[in-house]
Amino acid sequence: MLHNFKKNSHDTGLHVFFNGVLSIFNCNSCCKRWFFTFNGAECSAPFPIDGVVFMRTGASPNPVKELLRVRHIEGVCENVPKGEVKVGFWVGNCPSYGDADARTGWKGTSRIYVEELPPPQH
What we know:
Helices cover 0% and strands 56% of the residues. It is mainly beta. A four-stranded antiparallel sheet has the order 1-6-3-4, with no helix packed on it. Strands 2, 5, 7 and 8 form a four-stranded antiparallel sheet that branches. The protein is elongated and about 55 Å long. The chain starts with a strand and ends in a 5-residue tail after the last strand.
């Protein structure tokens, strides 16, 4: 999912958040990671903006489980250049885990918020 945002200054940060349902299902010892990108790259200053969902037991022959929960992922990225910024929200595998089924959004409204913040005070 991509959203275009016009950043007005080179020394400001971008505050972003996702709020909505994230889920994984029908898997054992599985993990998925949702994360923001800025012009195709994850934030490096100060840190990546991400969240994970892990499930220990949820696959057949046990009753199949699906973790459907409203979740909130939020942070500020300080190294984004001035101008047109493509803000992305993606899902991928967690390090050291295989692939698992994941969903973003379910029977509700999901929101992605992008806001330019003044420069940080050091």
